[in-house]
Amino acid sequence: MKNCTKELYLEVFGEEAEQLAFAPGRIEFIGNHTDYNGGLVMGAAVKEGITVAVGRRKDRTISLRTEASKRVDISLDNLQPLQGKDVWINYPVGVTNVLMDAGMDMPVGYNIAVTSTLPSGAGMSSSAAFELSTAYALASIYGYEADKAQFARIGRKAENEFVGMPCGILDQGVSAFGEHNALVRIDCKSESFSNLAMPKGTHFWIFDSNVKHALVDSAYADRHKECHDALSILQNTYPLAKSLTDISEEQLRTCESTLGPLLFRRALHIVGENDRVRLVEQALQINDLRAVGNALYASHESSRVNFDNSIQQLDFLVDALKQQPHVYGARLTGGGFGGAVMAYTNAAFGESLANALSLDYKEEFGIEATVLHTSAGSGATLL
Asked: CA–CA separation, 27 vs 285, rounded Å?
């Protein structure tokens, strides 16, 4: 992919790139929508991701090109979010805007060529990979210094304030702190990051439903608001709570009638999910993969029943995986409302089983489920 990106840059801009950078996509292992609720989450960086090649120009223009899109030119002096077919440029342009606000001196614009090995729309956070790879590359050529946590925050700020997605730190944090054969654990309240070794012989399989989610449009923002509204009501009884994850399930149940059925279910998902992250962390440390799998299934069921961010295609895939003897657990991964299911398996679960499940899915829904077998890889880096 590195050579492909270099070649694309040379082909489009007629010169060698100054710097290349790579950032991985991620699997949300457990901790669904807990990040922006101040909770705990665990994810894994994958080996697939986004590579960018950048080089400075002599004028104040930013020129952007991907494998699949036409070249787009904008002025460095008028950085505004775009709509329509060129909306993809808001990720690198948003990062540019945040870096300039943070004090990075950009006397001239830049060219950027972008390639990806991530399946689009599969809930593996290509947006965060795009933000982190861009941030690393631009910081390198313009002489800006930051650590992993700062780069993660730069990406999140770009997505929150420029793109308009009210996400937490999960996606960017995992992309920044990924390690080979390890999970990234994030305490989103303190924004502290650590790594937890994966048990040997375990694997990730991603089943992309090929039902695309449009999180920016409404559904993600709706859940964000519902969680905020639930917290506001709960704070009347528990004023010291700063986030939903400061509330225990017992405390939450005492306020069920006050919250009403919808906000109660939303809050129950977040509170329960935060407990499930703790359970999975403890189970992994003693290699209790049955307990890990049960928590993954429980996470998906709560997404389906309480958070309403699953769909019938994802439920079908999880139910089918539950029948397989070599699968520890499965759940939707990412924001939901479409996207993909993650299966956590042993080595005996192979391509033949995955393809058979994909065929069953096609018979049921008339569309393919794209299968990706991947493993935990390293975080964002200069190349």
From this structure: 20
What span, in angstroms and rounded, lies between the C-alpha atoms of 232 and 239?
A: 9
> What mean pLDDT is reported for the chain?
93
Domain ranges (residues) in the chain: 2-198, 202-374
Which secondary-structure segment (H or E) carries 89?
none
Options 3.30.420.40, 3.30.70.890, 3.40.50.11260, 3.40.50.10320; CATH of 202-374: 3.30.70.890
Residues that are catalytic:
171
Handedness of CA 146, 4, 334, 330 (dihedral sign): negative
Asked if 94 and 312 touch (Cβ cutoff 8 Å), the reply is: no
Residue linked to tokens 């972008």: 114
CB 70 within 8 A of CB 89: no
Q: Please give the Cα distance from 279 to 170 (Å, whole number).
A: 18
Note whether 2-198 and 202-374 share their fold.
no
Full-model pTM: 0.88
Q: How far is CA 112 from CA 62, 135, 249, in A?
A: 8, 12, 48
Contacts of 218 (CB under 8 A, 6+ apart): none
C-alpha 301/C-alpha 308 separation (Å) is 10
Determine the Cα–Cα distance for residues 228 and 91; give it in Å rounded to an integer. 26
Give one DSSP letter per residue of 321-374, joined into a string.
HHT-TTEEEEEEESS-SSSEEEEEEETT--HHHHHHHHHHHHHHHSS--EEEEE
CA angle at 247 for the pair 242 and 253, rounded to the nearest 5° = 140
CATH number of 2-198: 3.30.230.10
Residue that the structure tokens 């790579």 belong to: 22
Strands in the chain per DSSP E: 19-30, 40-56, 61-66, 72-75, 110-116, 182-187, 192-197, 202-208, 327-333, 340-346, 370-374, 381-382
Gap between the terminal Cα atoms of the chain: 11
Q: What is the pLDDT of residues 133-184, one digit of tens each?
A: 999 999 999 999 999 999 999 999 999 999 988 778 889 999 999 999 999 9
Q: Side chain identity at 281, as an amino acid letter?
A: E
- Whether the CB-CB separation of 157 and 165 falls below 8 Å is answered with no
